[in-house]
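sorry for the late reply, my laptop died twice this morning and i had to redo everyting from scratch. anyway the thing you sent over, i finally got around to it. pasting the sequence first so we're on the same page, its 228 residues, then the predicted structure underneath. double check i copied it right bc i was rushing
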Amino acid sequence: MIRLVTFDLDNTLWSVDVVIGRAEARMRDWIRPRAPEYDALAQENHAAIRKSVIAANPDIEHDISRLRERALLATFEHCGYARATAAKLAAGAFAVFLEWRHRIEYYDGALDVLEALAARYTLASLTNGNADFVRLGLDRYFTFGYCAADVGVSKPHTAMFERALAQAGVTPAEAVHVGDHAIHDVRGATDAGMATVWVNLDASAEDPGASATVTSLQEVPRAIANIG
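ok and here's the structure:
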């Protein structure tokens, strides 16, 4: 019997490209009048700085929020700002980014599906990103959640799945993971012994070996019931 259903967030319940693109644009709008040198940097410079930050701080690679803010700090310093000024700019810019990162337009039916499932199962969120389910108000449905920063590794590593199983007090056979990514979600959860529902909204011909495949979120409750 299924007792726990875990959900990926980005690209499972909403389009992350739309959200991040808009958040980065609003962040740049905030930065532009305060540090015009930031915009003048070529994209390859931004990428190189981020890469150098990861190399110097490998322990934060899976903490998307700390990594982004640390990269912002390094970029402002690269632009010639003193450490204290660069830190204030980085904190302000990241706050703007995070505000817009949590302005979500859900896929059709996403919230209705969560509401229906929460009435039958314990729900939890498992994400490699930095979307906060509580900040989004999704704690109406999710009892708990973990991100890669919480466990120190990203999916498909099984740590996040295993943490969820332990917190819910269920065996892998009593749990289903729902997600869009063939590797991070399907392979990761499968390696943890869980059943999987692959959210294939693009109707890809790929076969990642999920327990069930859906092409719309509205199909998820039935897919879970059939697995159960």
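The chain has a mean pLDDT of 97.
thats about all i looked at so far, will dig more tmrw
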